[in-house]
Amino acid sequence: QVQLVESGGGLVQAGGSLRLSCAASGSTFFVIYRLGWFRQAPGKDREFVSHITWSSGTTNYADSVKGRFTIARDNAKNTAYLQMNSLNSEDTAVYYCAVRGSPGEGYAYWGQGTEVTVSS
């Protein structure tokens, strides 16, 4: 079992910034292949935000956040971060992190989510 704990959400004004964290703990046998951030806005489906391949640091972003959000990881702390800048009301959502153990697997473990509210 792997536990993921997100933190860093909150209320921010449009144009502001937040940094989310995702701390992984649990099984020493599970090797993170990729960590992803997803979000779900009220009344909408969950959507992909960004991911990072753990070993290489390769990143990918949804078009809606490209240039504003930055994903990073700290291998030693088993923690990933999502720096969010130039926030707008469309970024309001519950943000989740999730991990997958290999390229052929889906995201097997999910955090409980952290809420981000952007006021205009």
Shape: globular
Average predicted local confidence, pLDDT: 95
Strand residue content: over 45%
Kindly provide the radius of gyration, computed on alpha-carbon positions and rounded to a whole number of angstroms.
14 Å
**Structural class, from helix and strand content?**
mainly beta
Count of runs of 4 or more consecutive helical residues: 0
Largest sheet: 7 strands, mixed
Instruction: State the end-to-end distance.
Output: 40 Å
Helix content: under 10%
Regions with little confidence, pLDDT below 50 for 5+ residues:
none
Number of strands: 11
Question: Mind sketching the topology for me?
Answer:
Layout: E1 2-7, E2 10-13, E3 18-26, E4 34-40, E5 47-53, E6 59-61, E7 69-74, E8 79-84, E9 93-100, E10 109-110, E11 114-119
Parallel strand pairs: 2-11
Antiparallel strand pairs: 1-3, 3-8, 4-5, 4-9, 5-6, 7-8, 9-10, 9-11
Tell me what you see in this structure.
This protein is mainly beta and 120 residues long. Helix content is 0%, strand content 53%. The chain has no helices and eleven strands. Strands 2, 4, 5, 6, 9, 10 and 11 form a seven-stranded mixed β-sheet that branches. The chain has a four-stranded antiparallel β-sheet with strand order 1-3-8-7, with no helix packed on it. The protein is globular and about 45 Å long.
